[in-house]
Design goal:
This protein is 7% helix and 31% strand. By secondary structure, the protein is mainly beta. It folds into 2 domains: 2-143, Alpha-Beta Horseshoe (24 nucleotide stem-loop, u2 snrnp hairpin iv. U2 a', Chain A), CATH 3.80.20; 156-226, Immunoglobulin-like. A 6-stranded parallel sheet has the order 1-3-5-7-9-10, with no helix packed on it. The chain has a 4-stranded parallel sheet with strand order 2-4-6-8, with no helix packed on it. A hairpin with a 6-residue loop joins strand 11 (156-158) and strand 12. Helix 1 packs across helix 2 (135-143). The longest helix has 9 residues, at 135-143.
Length: 230
């Protein structure tokens, strides 16, 4: 699907029932678009997704149901793009990933991008705003996330230090989490229910871990300490 050089196009209304595209999607030179409203059912793209030179796009909202990209994710030369919010639910980016010359882009540490980079996905990240200027800067925001829209309510995690499991009070329905080690490697992930224990992998060695909780576009970062008694 190619959407090219439509200066009056403001949304993808009329494409509301598209759930998958067998090959690629290219969105280029559509300066009145601000986001991807109208593609709310899109679940998978068989090949690459290219978003280039769309002056009005500020976010990727509208792609929230997208789960699979079969090749490259290429986002370049979009001067108004501020955030990658909208693609946080992607389970698979086959890659490579390119984020290039989006001068206003400052929020890149969404869950899908963090997962891709933390699992050594091939990437080119350059010439964006400072917070997204390099792979290292994006990874820094993954390990120390800041909510761009709202803060999660105060969360209580106990016991901390822990030995086998922790409880997390204050989460809401739909929360997901991941745990990273001190090198930024993903060691565990899952869904959360308020007050229910989270049984952590028994093989975790003692040390500091990073718990990142996601809910409704916001995130919270907490440090956990694994303690092994001899």
């Amino acid at each position: 699907m190619i959407v090219l050089n439509n200066p009056s196009l403001t949304s993808f209304s009329g494409l509301d029932n598209i759930e998958w595209v067998g090959y690629s999607i290219s969105i280029i030179y559509n300066d009145s678009l601000t986001d991807f409203s109208g593609l709310g059912k899109l679940d998978s793209i068989g090949s690459f997704l290219s978003i280039q030179q769309n002056d009005g796009i500020s976010s990727l909202d509208g792609l929230n149901q997208l789960r699979f990209i079969g090749a490259d994710l290429f986002i370049a030369d979009n001067p108004g793009l501020e955030s990658l919010s909208g693609i946080e639910n992607l389970d698979t980016i086959t890659g490579p990933l390119t984020l290039k010359n989006n001068p206003a882009l400052s929020v890149c540490g969404v869950e899908s991008i963090c997962h891709y980079l933390l699992n050594n996905g091939i990437s080119t990240i350059t010439e964006n705003a400072t917070e997204c200027s390099t792979k290292e800067k994006v990874l820094e925001s993954c390990l120390n996330p800041v909510s761009e829209t709202k803060n999660l309510p105060e969360l209580i995690v106990y016991p901390n230090p822990f030995t086998e499991s922790v409880r997390i009070d204050g989460v809401s329905t739909g929360c997901t989490f991941k745990i990273l080690d001190n090198l930024g490697r993903l060691v565990f992930s899952g869904n959360l229910l308020d007050g229910n224990p989270v049984d952590l992998p028994y093989h975790l060695i003692s040390g500091v871990y990073h718990l990142i909780i996601y809910a409704q576009g916001a995130s919270s970062h907490l440090r956990l300490i694994k303690q092994v008694y001899k």
